[in-house]
Amino acid sequence: xxxxxxxxxxxxxxxxxxxxxxxxxxVMTSSAWSLDNQWYFGIGGGVSILEPNPDxxxxxxDNNQGTLGGFTLGRDINERSxxxxxxxxxxxxxxxxxxxxxxxxxxxSVLYRFYDTRDKQLRxxxxxxxxxxxxxxxxxxxxxxxxxxxxxxxxxxxxGGAEFYLTRNIAIRAEAYYHDQDIASAQLSLITRxxxxxxxxxxxxxxxxxxxxxxxxxxxxxxxxxxxVTEAPVTESAPVVPVPVVPVPIEPANxxxxxxxxxxxxxxxxxxxxxxxVGYPVGEFGCPLFDGVLSGVQFIDGTSELDQNATEQLDYLxxxxxxxxxxxxxxxxxxxxxxxxxxxxxxxRARLRTVGTYLIGQGVRANRLVLRSFGGTxxxxxNATARGRLANNRIExxxxxxxx
Length: 404
Hints:
Blueprint: E1 3-4, H1 7-32, E2 39-50, E3 61-63, E4 65-76, E5 81-95, E6 100-116, E7 128-143, E8 147-148, E9 154-165, E10 170-180, E11 183-194, E12 291-293, H2 311-323, E13 329-334, H3 341-361, E14 369-373, H4 386-392, E15 394-399
Parallel strand pairs: 13-14
Antiparallel strand pairs: 1-8, 2-4, 2-11, 3-5, 4-5, 5-6, 6-7, 7-9, 9-10, 10-11, 12-15, 13-15
Helix pairs in contact: 2-3
C-alpha cells in the first residue's frame, strides 16, 4: 500500500529522529573514555537530488534539486576510523501540480580513511588530505500530503569524499552520499576538533628518568669538556637522562708503531676497544662514540615533532659526522607500548624522517644514514610505568660497518 504522510506520521518520524540522535550520542560517549582521540563537530551545506515517486497518475517531479544544510558530530577512534552522527535538512522536491515533498534525514555511520597524504610527508606537519569512505544506518522523513510509492523510512547509506586538514583542529570535508533510492546528496563542511588528550611538550617534572643501557652521546658544550663523568644539566621542567661527557675526539694520528694497533689515536695500553673501525670517532678510551642513546633528542609526547632542546645534540652529531667523512651510522627509533603495532610503526618511522631530514639539512649526505624503525618491540624498561614509557621513547645511534 502506498503511504500517505500526514501530521501524525511527521510527529512520529521526528520523535524517532530524536531517539536516534540520543542513542548515537550514548554509544559515542560510552566509548569516548577508552579512545585516546578527539571529538569533532561539523556544519555544512550543499545540494541534494530528490526523486520522490508520487503514486498519482500523471503527477511527476518538476524540480528534483534541493538545497541542504546540516551538522555532524563525531569521534575519531584512531588515525583511520571515526564514528559520527549526521542530521540533514535536504530541501524539497517540487511536483508538477505545485505540491512539494520536503526531505530530512539522520544517520549514524562509520568513516574510514584509506589514504592520508600525511603518512608520506618527509616532515611531520598539519597540512594534508585524506580520502575516506563512509557507510551507515539512517532514517529519512518525507514530509508531504501526496501519496508516495516509496514508504521505507530506514535506509542503509554509503558514500565517500576527501578531508583537507588546514590546522591541527580545522579541516574542510567534501563528500557525496547515497541515502536511499530517491535521495542523494553532496556537501561541503567545516570540521573542528576538540577535546581528547593534549600532547605534553615536556615529560612530567616529578617523574625521574632512569639511566639507559649503554653510553650516550655527549651533549655539546660551549667549551671543550674536561675528562671525567658529569651529569648533563637538568631543568625542573624537562629532566633528562644523566649521560657521560666524553672529550671531543681528536683526529686519528698517523702512527706506524705497534702501540696503536687500530690506528685510532689511543695507545693500546689505554685502549678498551682495541679493534675499533678506522675512520670512526672514538672516545678517551678508544671506544666508538657512535654507540648509544641520543638522550638529548626528545619529541613532543605522541608526535614526531622535536622538542625545542633536541636540535643541540643533533647539531653536535652532524658536526661529528662532517669531521669523519668515512663514517656511516644507523639511527634506530623506538617507542613505548601505547597504541597498536601499526600506530607505533608509523610514529617511529615519522620520527626517523624528522631526525634524518634535520641531519641532511645540516650538511650530512643521505647515503651516510641508515634508518631503522622498531616501533614498540624493543622496550628496555617496564611500559607499565610512566618513567619506563619515557625511557622507551628513544633514538639510538650505532656504527654502520661495511659488509665483510
